[in-house]
Design brief:
2 domains, Spore Coat Polysaccharide Biosynthesis Protein SpsA, Chain A, seven-stranded mixed β-sheet, 51% helix, 12 helices, membrane, single chain
């Protein structure tokens, strides 16, 4: 058997894996409609951990206070900020009865670790149902808390939400960031629907305080600077205790990075936690990434040498059609339809960027959460 023939068979296998993945995503999440549940207004503690976020707090705390929700407190955690974050928090604390302030000093143990700061915030909260977001996150509606909390039940102690990024005109980086966000959400929502939840995003998620302490909180990975969201969820989530919420009213909107260097630094921190996922999740996610990378590498090479090109073009076309359906339906749910036509170009740039990040993380690990 010639080398081109072997590569062609390998490409068929790669495309088969990709199509299987995308068909799974399509039927388990892309085609699902968001559920609107009865609003329960159970007591909620909303926890926001902030480091040097004074301007974002001034902007977003009033919007959170304006939520159409009858019983909630806001726990503001100042993680050793060196701007006027603490002063801003104190002003809100003095003005509103449902705001509680936690100040993490620089001389406390585990300084610089967001998980330690979050743990103090969780301990200070007075309610069993916890919602988490970041200081730079804006609720997409006044129903945000009501939508997220409606998914709690006697069985469901984890709720995974969607954290979008704001659109910026004429920015290639912005489109790449939003594309990666939609692809990540497509995966973690699909896996959760398939009974294999493996992560959530700290910009928009919720769980019960009892679940946190019954599983010893972040103790098993406290030394890892990132992963307060995905590592904890990967550790405790299962098919029976996890629900997903993706109504448009339940989104949060964050300000994206505007410099490529800053985004790479952020992604390096996020990707560094994946090696600590459960083995089955590492295998499935690695298989998806490697098959995507090989799709581009093998497909480009075989087309370049002109071997069996009608078959190769047909396989590439079939894969793109199924991917477009899966991504397209998902992008529509998340109000990111401008990305659909650019999907192949954005995927190529994302896959090559992720490869460079993997290589960089092998050389040195990110050391700080911010």
């Amino acid at each position: 058997m010639t080398i081109p023939s072997m590569l062609c068979y390998a490409f068929v296998a790669v495309v088969s894996i990709q199509i299987t993945y995308y068909l799974s995503f399509l039927f388990f999440f892309s085609l699902k409609r968001a559920e609107t549940r009865i609003k329960k207004h159970i007591p909620i503690s909303l926890i926001i951990c902030a480091k040097n976020e004074s301007e974002n707090l001034k902007k977003n705390i009033p919007l959170i206070l304006n939520q159409n929700y009858s019983n909630f407190e806001i726990v503001l955690v100042n993680d050793s900020s060196y701007d006027d974050t603490l002063e801003v928090m104190k002003r809100f604390d003095a003005q509103y009865d449902n705001i509680k302030l936690v100040d993490v000093k620089t001389n406390e143990a585990f300084w610089g670790n967001k998980k330690y700061a979050l743990t103090l915030g969780i301990k200070a909260s007075k309610h069993d149902f916890l919602v988490f977001t970041d200081a730079d996150c804006t609720p997409n509606s006044e129903q945000w808390l009501a939508q997220i909390s409606s998914h709690f039940s006697n069985d469901k102690s984890i709720v995974l939400g969607y954290g979008a990024y704001a659109k910026k005109k004429f920015s290639v980086l912005n489109k790449l960031i939003r594309f990666e966000t939609v692809m990540t959400a497509l995966q973690y929502f699909s896996y959760a629907k398939m009974g294999e939840p493996y992560m959530g995003v700290g910009r928009n998620m919720a769980y019960r305080k009892a679940l946190f302490f019954n599983n010893r909180g972040f103790n098993n990975h406290m030394s890892i600077k990132s992963g307060d969201d995905d590592l904890f969820i990967n550790e405790v989530a299962n098919a029976s205790n996890t629900s997903v919420c993706f109504t448009k009213e339940s989104f949060t909107i964050s300000e994206p990075k505007t410099r490529f260097k800053d985004w790479i630094h952020q992604k390096r921190r996020h990707i560094s936690t994946a090696s600590l996922y459960k083995l089955k999740h590492k295998f499935l996610l690695s298989l998806f990434y490697l098959s995507t990378l090989l799709f581009w590498v093998l497909g480009s090479y075989i087309l370049l040498i002109g071997f069996a090109w009608p078959w190769i073009v047909s396989l590439i076309g079939l894969r793109f059609i199924i991917q477009w359906l899966s991504f397209g339906f998902t992008a529509k749910k998340f109000e990111e339809t401008d990305l659909i036509i650019l999907m192949p170009v954005l995927e190529f740039f994302l896959i090559t960027t992720q490869l460079s990040i993997f290589i960089a993380n092998l050389i040195s690990k990110p050391k700080h959460w911010k």
